[in-house]
Specification:
Largest sheet of chain A: 7 strands, mixed
Shape of chain A: globular
Largest interface: A-B, 67 and 67 residues
Radius of gyration of chain A: 20 Å
Strand order of the largest sheet of chain A: 8-10-7-11-9-12-13
Order of helices and strands of chain A: HEEEHEHEEEHHHEHEHHEHEEE
Oligomer: homodimer
Number of strands of chain A: 13
Distance between the termini of chain A: 34 Å
């Protein structure tokens, strides 16, 4: 396949447009004008987020196929919308492409992106293509909608709230370590394969965020892009509170437990510090616990675990059989 | 000043947040949560665009100060909103920063951005910061609002429409060539200084786009990011029409005329092919010409010139004393 630079921007935009299905009626103008135009959903507020992936910072092309890179660039944004309780409505894709990137890679990346965009409702409505004299960079802006009173914020937790988390933790961090160690994909067991899949193809908890937002049972929510430790630090800080997590309750992914244990690392510490699981954490007042758990039961077999609580004394702690130790700092992309 | 990588992402976000003033009431959640939340303007549709600048593709740090780079990254997006007739409401800023970028440069870039964001109404409500193992990259998403029936599209022109353009052309292209030639800024005359300023600090025609949109006098609009030739090609193509521009009417910037003439280049060809002027082109039915010109008189001393018309025969032509020659292709960033 020819390198994309032989095509030029207009031909590439046309190539991209052909890979995108017809938009829903709420998209008044999609790809091709100076800007995209959306009809806002009645009675909702507009939720906007942007996040990106940079080659050799967030992914390595030698390890990960373009389709997975494209989908992940959108998924990390969908996770931010989920943490607000917002339903995805549209997205914009900005690509800076190295000269050697070829058309097959471009098509694969776009297909991975568009496939998730169509499944999630985050219709691709616009974007930008440019060359990169350095790494491949993918910047995505996602747009969502939510009724104002169903919005989930991160700064509205209170002392006494319990902390809940979706899914299992540490899988993405273990998957990344496996790739770094040069693991042979064909030989891994199911638990390790789940870690690789979580790192490369994270799934945003859109349905759960929306359902919990609608239930109005959570006092705050945040996604775990930078890991659980970082997330609970932030929820606690903006509540002027501290947080204590119960080590025995942390749902560590099976493959992450095996990976960490095999290397003499405490699996719980590994799981709480590891980033990129893209699960959600919620703060919930104990008197709303029943309503919250009732709502989460409708989140399609998604495990939800109570792992700790906000306390009056500042600081962030992990409690193991009553012994407290400081929570590690979050995962650092920078 | 220390390089930004010694600070980490959280500290940088905090540094950025301190440089942004309090947002207007329509911004329900600004910087600091998982996503930004806006209250949509009643009776409007939502206009979204994304565009970016990549070091050594769109700018060179040796030539241009960080404040100008930050402002230009937003301005190119405001130009897209202007071409839709939309009023800027919010923006998101995504930065991929090289390791050697230092805090003073970061502050300057952010200040340049924020200053224009506040002047234009495109309040900075969110973004993303990451490292770049290569060039500095700045991706911006701008959000605007416009009443649905005042929206300007690019694909709604008709054969017989006249083409108008704002401002003067070729200045940005001449400014770029001057910088490439290693011109000494201190020695240039006013006309050349205007070219440098247009290249480095383009001004989006926001007020003009909004006023023309409100007048409902234009049948189509587009901005000149890739030059006039490219813009009129696109307007004509999506109308299934051709276009003839009148060479004598093209408003060539004085500095561009001098630059091109001095190098044996036809100034009109230079001006119509050159990109990055960020002026607007409009297609206007002759029976709405009066209304259109009446509206543009309210665009704060902005020159608006009739330069050609859409014709039934496909193709794009420049007419010089009745002799037709093909319009050059547009400016290519890719």
């Amino acid at each position: 396949m020819p390198p994309i630079r032989t095509l030029g921007e207009h031909a590439l935009v046309e190539r991209l447009r052909q890979r995108v299905g017809p938009p829903p009626a709420s998209v008044l103008i999609g790809i091709g004008d100076d800007a995209a135009v959306l009809e806002p959903d009645r009675g909702t507020v507009q939720v906007l987020t942007t996040d990106g992936l940079v080659e050799d910072v967030h992914f390595t092309r030698a390890w990960t196929r373009p389709a997975a890179i494209g989908a992940k660039a959108l998924a990390v944004n969908l996770s931010d919308l989920a943490a607000m309780g917002a339903t995805p409505r549209a997205s914009l894709l900005s690509l800076a492409l190295p000269d050697a990137f070829d058309c097959a890679e471009f098509d694969e990346l776009v297909d991975g992106y568009v496939s998730l965009a169509e499944r999630s409702g985050a219709t691709l409505v616009g974007g930008n293509l440019t060359r990169s004299p350095g790494p491949l960079m993918i910047d995505v802006t996602a747009v969502g909608a939510v009724a104002r009173r169903r919005l989930l914020r991160r700064d509205t937790a209170r002392v006494g709230d319990e902390i809940f988390v979706t899914g299992v933790l540490g899988a993405a961090a273990a998957g990344l370590e496996m790739l770094r160690s040069g693991i042979a994909r064909m030989g891994v067991d199911d638990a390790a394969a789940a870690c690789l899949a979580r790192y490369e193809s994270p799934e945003a908890r859109t349905r759960c965020g929306v359902i919990v937002g609608r239930s109005r049972a959570a006092s705050a929510a945040i996604d775990l892009s930078d890991g659980l430790a970082d997330a609970v630090h932030r929820i606690a800080e903006s509540a002027g509170a501290g947080v204590v997590l119960d080590a025995e309750q942390i749902p560590v992914a099976e493959g992450a437990r095996a990976w960490a244990s095999g290397r003499g690392i405490d699996p719980v510490m590994f799981a709480v510090a590891g980033g990129e699981d893209y699960e959600l954490a919620f703060a919930v007042s104990p008197r709303r616990r029943g309503r919250f758990l009732g709502a989460t039961r409708r989140c399609r077999n998604l495990q939800v675990t109570r792992i700790g609580r906000l306390v009056a004394d500042r600081g962030a702690w992990l409690s193991t059989s009553g012994r407290l130790e400081p929570l590690p700092a979050g995962f650092v992309h920078f």
